[in-house]
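Class, look over these structure tokens:
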Amino acid sequence: MLSARFRRTANIFIVPIARLFAALGIAPNLLTLLGLLASVATAFALAAKRLDIAFVLLLLTGFFDAIDGAVARLTQRVSNFGAFFDATLDRYADAAVIIGIALYLESHYLLAFLALVGSFMVSYTRARAELFIPRCDVGLGERAERLIIIIFALAASLAGFVEAERALYYALVLVALLSHSTALERIFYTYAFMKGGKQKK
């Protein structure tokens, strides 16, 4: 899974920053909330056609998404509620960014809907599957990958490599395809795992 490999590399930079936040006494749940606020602000920036601001805010979204868990682990504040809170706010954040892209494009609402549903199904299939099997983290369409796709689309448009409308349209297409394929992969993975007689103890 790309997310796991990416996080191992990113931890070289994330952990020292997380130590600073931990030393300042900043709660992990506050960082999760800041990530949601950055996502909502990204949506407003996209709707206002300010791609430069949207790009910076989306980078902040990714930063807070990566740092909250690291701070929780460093401060030994990992909890079931923290995981639930993080996962719930992440879904709101996903919705905000995708809606923001649809508002920027002023079209392709069905595509945005498909991307949004797929994004939700990635997390839902894992959450449901892990009630019955130990882990279900297969697939390439997790949140980190989806954020990277949109960040690269914004970066490419700001650099003048491609028109913004085209870049964001294809970003939505890729998010929709990856997320739904990941959800399907998790369905088949869970079926095969359980068919083999394995269950979560």
